[in-house]
Design brief:
CATH superfamily: Aldolase class I
Number of domains: 1
Radius of gyration: 18 Å
CATH class: Alpha Beta
Structural class: alpha/beta
Distance between the termini: 38 Å
Shape: globular
Order of helices and strands: EHEEEHHEHEEHEHEHEHEHEEEHH
Mean pLDDT: 97
CATH architecture: Alpha-Beta Barrel
Length: 313
């Protein structure tokens, strides 16, 4: 059944907590750089901006609310895009650290990893010949022995303290089929209500592989668990899989996520000079497929968001 709204939502994940400064000179690190790239991505067509923070001194990921506060309100003032704050952070952050700024900001959206998992890019360290900062190499190599924790209790806590208490809705990040069943558990518990916005994530070491058949399988499982009319899905293809899987998602009636958090490249061997260039590329592809791009106002309606006027920043 065709929905009333079938425009494509573009999410841009601006910097993340996985890549490090030595991997690309274009990765935004300071509050000013994150702000500038986020605003440019919104102007290029991203209706949702997924945001992490970095220590401006050396680019390492940080959960510090004071750093977030240096760019999030400025992005809100400069664009109408939906601001989506991570609750994932990094594998090295505690739950309290990951929630410190979201609980203060009370945004329209937050990301929410739907389970504990191995999550790593440690093989990438072998390809880096020179590191800009002392923290980077042990950080990347150390991912081999790190687990991202989000227990059922952790997830329930986030859903209650952000969702129920403040009206924040979620980008449910599902890195494997089991994460869809975890989400279904919270629907059954009454902690999550439709419309759901589910991010299918492919190609992260520790999660489901970036095979087209896996996208079809995830879609089928989600249909079975939630009913197609009760959720919208988006696709994140990590690294070189970014554009191909995003295109496949759109053809299947889904939405797309791009950004330097997920891939540092624009095409094979070519570093993306900015987040906006990735947004422009996927937008060109979508428009060539005769698909329309959703505006922030339309996204707020599609996902049942509380509106920019109800946030804490």
């Amino acid at each position: 059944m065709k929905r009333k709204h079938d425009k494509v939502i573009i999410t841009c994940a601006v910097t993340g907590g996985i890549h490090t400064p030595s991997m690309s000179p274009h990765l935004p690190l300071t509050p000013e750089q994150i702000e500038a790239q986020a605003v440019e991505a919104a102007e290029a067509g991203a209706a949702i901006l997924h945001l992490h923070a970095r220590d401006p001194a050396d680019g390492r990921p940080t959960p510090d609310p004071a750093v977030f506060a240096r760019f999030v309100p400025r992005i809100k003032a400069a664009t109408d895009a939906v601001i989506n704050i991570t609750t994932g952070g990094t594998t090295r952050m505690s739950l309290a650290e990951r929630l410190a700024y979201p609980l203060q900001a009370r945004p329209e959206m937050c990301s929410l990893n739907m389970g504990s998992m191995n999550f790593s890019i440690h093989p990438v360290a072998r390809r880096i010949g020179e590191w800009k900062h002392d923290w980077e190499k042990p950080y990347v190599e150390g991912m081999e022995d790190q687990i991202f924790r989000n227990s059922f209790k952790d997830i329930a806590h986030i859903l209650r303290t952000l969702g129920q208490a403040h009206g924040t809705r979620f980008e449910f990040e599902c890195y494997d089929v089991g994460h869809l069943y975890n989400l279904a558990h919270f629907v059954d518990e009454g902690l999550v209500q439709a419309p759901l916005f589910i991010q299918f994530i492919f190609g992260v070491l520790g999660g489901i592989g970036a095979d087209p058949a896996n996208l079809a399988h995830m879609r089928g499982v989600a249909d079975h668990l939630f009913g197609r009319e009760n959720y919208r899905f988006s696709v994140l293809g990590a690294g070189r899989h970014q554009m191909a899987l995003a295109t496949m998602s759109a053809v299947m009636g889904g939405n797309v996520r791009v950004g330097l958090e997920d891939s540092l490249f624009l095409s094979r061997g070519e570093l993306a000079p900015s987040n906006a260039e990735q947004v422009r590329k996927i937008r060109r592809i979508l428009e060539e497929l005769s698909l329309e791009i959703a505006t922030p106002r339309e996204v707020r309606d599609m996902l049942g968001l509380k509106g920019a006027g109800a946030v804490g920043f």
